[in-house]
Design brief:
4-stranded antiparallel β-sheet, globular, 4 strands
Length: about 100
Amino acid sequence: MSNKYELTIVLDTRGKEESIDKILGQIGKEIESEGGRLQQIDQLGRKKFAYTPRKVDEGFFANFHFEAEPAAIEKVRSRLKLNSDVFLQHLLKKSA
C-alpha cells in the first residue's frame, strides 16, 4: 500500500546556480529508483535563512510530491543524506 509524501529540500547551490534543474532531476530519479512515483516538483526559489546554519546564508527550496511504499522512504532519506547538494530535507506524509 503506497502513501503520498511531500519532500521539502533545500539545496546548497553556492557556485552551482546554473545546474539547479539538473540537481532536481537527479533527486527525482533517486526517488523513482527506490520505487517512488514522482508526481510533481515545485521549485520555490532561492530564499535567505533567518540565521546562518553552518555558514550558509541562503538556499534553493523545492518540493517533491510523490507516492511510495513505506519501506522505500528510509532508503530515499539515506540517499539524500549522502547527496552533497542537499543542505536540508524534511519529509511529510500526506493524508489520503
